[in-house]
Amino acid sequence: MAENKISANPTKETYPLFYLSDPPPSGLGFGFFDSPQKNPIPPPPPVEVFPSDEQLPTKSTAEPISINDTLVLLKGKVSTFDVFGVSNSDLVAGKYEGGLKLWEGSLDLVKTLSSDVREGRLLLKGKRVLELGCGHGLPGIFTCLEGAAAVHFQDFNSEVLRFLTIPNVEVNLSKEEDKKEKCISPDVRFFSGDWSEIHQLLLPPRNDNHKKVTECISAEEDSDGYDVILMAETVYALSSLQSLYELIKKCMRGPSGVVYMAGKKHYFGVGGGTRQFLHILDQDGTMAACLLAEVTDGSSNVREVWKFSLKQA
Ligand SMILES: C[S@@+](CC[C@H](N)C(=O)[O-])C[C@H]1O[C@@H](n2cnc3c(N)ncnc32)[C@H](O)[C@@H]1O
Fold it and tell me: Does the keyword Nucleus apply (predicted)?
């Protein structure tokens, strides 16, 4: 089986069960994906969303989420019905892809990033970070707080970015600025659109003349790709796994770029899962995968956090 070819780090961490303030809709936490997906409608065009487009104030409604003993992030809450006119348990293929809920994987991912930073396995200072399928954006926010030079957030829906991600970023960053301990001035940008098209905005075509006059640009200022790509709960739908993989290959800065992926081993009812994504990696053969954490709470689906990097020649 393909998954046997993937080498997993034998050092696994098992996190205790934690609860989100929004309980999952039913069963294993992805009840809304049980509904059959209809023929896809054309995706919305890729656009950059600016913080001035923000529409809902969430500062007053942001709730604290404890990641570990020392790390607390704030999360806003927005109703799916208010934004999209659909009930909380709905996924509307081609219209709304689940970004208004906070999924467990995004907290698994922040915990893993936090422990990798603490243990010296990951340096975020000065790095360019991309969070794909960000929703609340907590993993990307964590990297801002750790001194990343640029953090770009992507979601399928511009509404998710305007109503949720941008207010969340602002409330978390202003909290840190108030402390006046660190200078947080990352280049933070927001992009919406489908994974099959969003590279057009994330990787603008290089202008050779511009390249010549900026030859002395440092690697960290160079906008050609991302050092760290983050994604949580993005591998549920079989139909989008290939375009997601092609996107991370385009966006990853070689040879040192890394991808952190959190997700469920299997998403029952829709066929996707971390192992299906690893199968695509394995077939392509250009990336190595390492299992960083396995989260078993005894009652729901097994969740995993993986790290990918380019295989060394
Ligand atoms: C289940 S939500 C997870 C949200 C967040 N990462 C979390 O864990 O709380 C899946 C995310 O992937 C994004 N997404 C799904 N399919 C997509 C596609 N084809 N193109 C772009 N984004 C997509 C959605 O916008 C959504 O934010």
Answer: yes
Spacing of C-alpha 50 from chain mean position: 19
The residue nearest atom 5 of ligand 1, judged by CA position, is 135
In a domain, 242, yes or no: yes
Out of 55-59, 131-135, 222-226, 296-300, least confident range: 55-59
CA distance 240 to 235: 8
Distance CA 135, CA 31 (A): 18
**Which residues lie across from 66 on neighbouring strands?**
72
Note the pLDDT of residue 223: 63
Q: Which atom of ligand 1 is nearest to the CA of 131?
A: 6
Q: What is the CATH number of the domain that holds 240?
A: 3.40.50.150
pLDDT at 56: 56
- Domain around 25: 2-35+47-310
The DSSP element (H or E) to which 259 belongs, if any, is strand 258-264
**CA-only gyration radius of the chain, Å:** 19
Please give the distance, rounded to the nearest whole angstrom, from the Cα atom of residue 135 to the centre of ligand 1: 7
Q: Is the CB of 96 under 6 A from ligand 1?
A: no
Element (H, E) at 72: strand 72-75
Instruction: Report the mean per-residue pLDDT for the chain.
Output: 81
Torsion of CA 224, 160, 64, 179, to 10 degrees: 50
- The total number of structural domains in the chain stands at 1
pLDDT of residue 86: 83
Q: How far is the CA of 134 from the centre of ligand 1 (A)?
A: 6
